Amino acid sequence: MDYFNAFWVGGLICALVQILLEKTKLMPGRIMVLLVCVGAVISFFGWYEPFMEYAGAGASVPLLGYGNILMKGVKEAVSESGFIGLFQGGFKTGAVGCCAALVFGYLASLIFKPKMKG
């Protein structure tokens, strides 16, 4: 049942994003930022952990999950360092995801030989 819940929740998130792309004039970058911000807001209110327990990877893998990770880092850093934690927390927790994206993107470029658009 865990796999099923992850599948339908992740699919629903992707379907809603696709509808936003098709029916609005929002650019993909703005929708990505919107998803991260929505994930952070949901995490701020404490609703993301129960959502993630129910949906598993369907909730933690999309960009909503990245917003949750950033907010968790900020909460921890603020409790440890005070006001300066607002600036430290997101970098500490978000660094792993950004680093992985850069490394795997680079490896993919070595394998598939990308070309410039002409």
Q: Which terms summarize this structure?
A:
single chain; 83% helix; 0% strand; 6 helices; mainly alpha; 118 residues
The H/E string reads HHHHHH
Question: Structural class of the helix and strand makeup?
Answer: mainly alpha
| Radius of gyration (Å) | 17 Å
Low-confidence blocks of residues: none
What is the count of distinct domains?
Answer: 1
Query: Which term fits the overall shape?
Result: globular
Instruction: Characterize the main sheet.
Output: none
How would you describe the overall organization of this protein?
The protein has helices at residues 2-23, 28-44, 48-55, 57-60, 63-81, 85-112. By secondary structure, it is mostly helical. The model has no long low-confidence stretch (mean pLDDT 89).
